[in-house]
Design a protein that fits this description.
This protein has 417 residues and is an all-alpha fold. It has 17 helices and two strands. The protein has a two-stranded antiparallel sheet with strand order 1-2. The longest helix has 29 residues. It is a multi-pass membrane protein.
């Protein structure tokens, strides 16, 4: 048996991919350890998912010129993806709850591959919108489903770490994948970025067929329905924090290229994304160590980093050095964004974790849509403030989020068991 090391923990490979209830490290429970490779493969799925969502943000000028549309129309492609995810997440998670998790994930990867390849090959803006909706539907099912899929493989006291590893694909997608795809889009062509991403999704699907363990679905009942989940007060606290944090981050991130130009940032968008990415990777590594024991402290710290970063953008603008620190802090805040709140909402329920995370994911994606919509309104109707008006919006969201998190000790403190 081959043993790997992740963040100081032993992670051993499965001798049989069908061993579905396992642990990330030996813990004396008698459960067989699960492999780093399995969780890494799951992380590659979220990597594709986040890149599919954010791709237009990195190549906004190229898509605008290539399609002959306005910048806000390309920004809309991010928003409509998020809207489709938000609308369809809860009903489709409920409808597909009975399906084997592996089979469902393969279907979703096929959807990602097809939607991205078609976007890369068509000149029709309306067909691109349709494919973005398809991709958004797949993402709406994937985000909550894969979190529940992963937690089914580990004991309760390691759910946070399992979600962190799986959702690391989200962080690496933003920090590494998006800069690479942006480079391809600027140097080779924006269409090639989407085609490459579609082919990557197809390759991951082939690996998943062979290596991912099979986990049976579950029957939808009154106790694990979305209505039952929404009766839990703690869930509403997590949903409110999700909304505030997502609007704070994504309103500005959608127009990060304009922010860099407005700040006259030394090094340009490539360096800004690199620094942002480094911060994201650092925070994911750190959060994996503490998320199961200090969840509330982690959330407060990450929200505070985001607030400080936005404050530096406003008060110091593009001052060399300060702006670079701001992008690093913003990356720190952004890294565990998905992980923190999916872990928090999963702690509020004993069962129906897929349904609970689907509700949280739906709010997450609705929040992205709202963030891009409000940001677009600010750019159109407040031209004198420009993109810095969006930064002010972020600050107005970060402040109450920090306060709510700080006072929600009973809800957000991680369980000790």
């Amino acid at each position: 048996m081959i043993t790997f090391s992740f963040l100081g923990e032993d992670v051993s490979s499965l001798s049989n991919s069908n061993q579905a209830t396992n642990s990330l490290s030996g813990n004396g429970t008698g459960q067989s350890p699960i492999s780093w490779f399995i969780f890494g493969l799951m992380a590659s799925v979220t990597f594709v998912g986040i890149l599919s969502e954010l791709m237009p943000s990195g190549i906004l000028p190229q898509m605008t010129a290539g399609l002959g549309v306005e910048q806000t129309q390309v920004g809309f492609l991010v928003g409509i993806y998020a809207l489709a995810s938000a609308i369809f997440a809860i009903p489709l998670i409920s409808m597909t709850l009975w399906i084997n998790r592996k089979i469902l994930l393969l279907a979703l990867l096929t959807g990602f591959a097809v939607s991205n390849i078609v976007v890369g090959m068509t000149s029709s803006y309306y067909l691109i919108v349709a494919m973005r909706i398809l991709g958004g539907i797949c993402a709406g099912i994937m985000w909550p489903m894969i979190a529940a899929y992963g937690t089914a493989l580990v004991p309760e006291n390691m759910h946070g770490r399992a979600i962190t590893i799986i959702m690391a694909g989200n962080t690496f997608g933003v920090s590494l994948g998006l800069p690479v795809m942006t480079f391809i889009g600027t140097q080779v062509g924006w269409r090639m970025s989407f085609i490459v991403l579609g082919l990557l999704g197809a390759a991951i699907a082939l690996l998943a067929i062979k290596f991912l363990p099979s986990v049976e679905g579950e029957k939808l009942t009154q106790s694990n329905s979305p209505i039952a989940v929404l009766k839990i007060p703690g869930v509403w606290i997590v949903l409110a924090l999700t909304f505030l944090a997502v609007v704070a981050h994504y309103s500005t991130y959608t127009y990060i290229t304009l922010l860099v130009e407005t700040l006259e940032f030394v090094g340009g968008i490539s360096l800004a994304l690199l620094i942002f990415g480094i911060g994201s990777v650092i925070s994911v590594i750190l959060s994996a160590r503490v998320i199961d024991t200090h969840l509330r402290g982690l959330i407060v710290s990450m929200l505070a980093c985001g607030l400080i970063a936005m404050g530096l953008f406003v008060f110091f603008r593009g001052t060399n050095g300060v702006a670079h620190i701001a992008f690093l802090l913003w990356g720190l805040a952004f890294g565990p964004l998905v992980t923190m709140f999916q872990t928090a909402v999963s702690h509020q329920v004993d069962e129906a974790k897929a349904v609970a995370t689907s509700v949280q994911s739906s709010v997450f994606n609705f929040s992205i849509m709202i963030a891009t919509w409000i940001a677009g309104l600010i750019l159109v109707h407040m031209p004198e403030t420009g993109v810095l008006g969006i930064v002010y919006l972020s600050i107005l969201c970060f402040i109450p989020a920090v306060i709510i998190t700080f006072i929600s000790k009973k809800t957000l403190d991680a369980p000790t068991a």
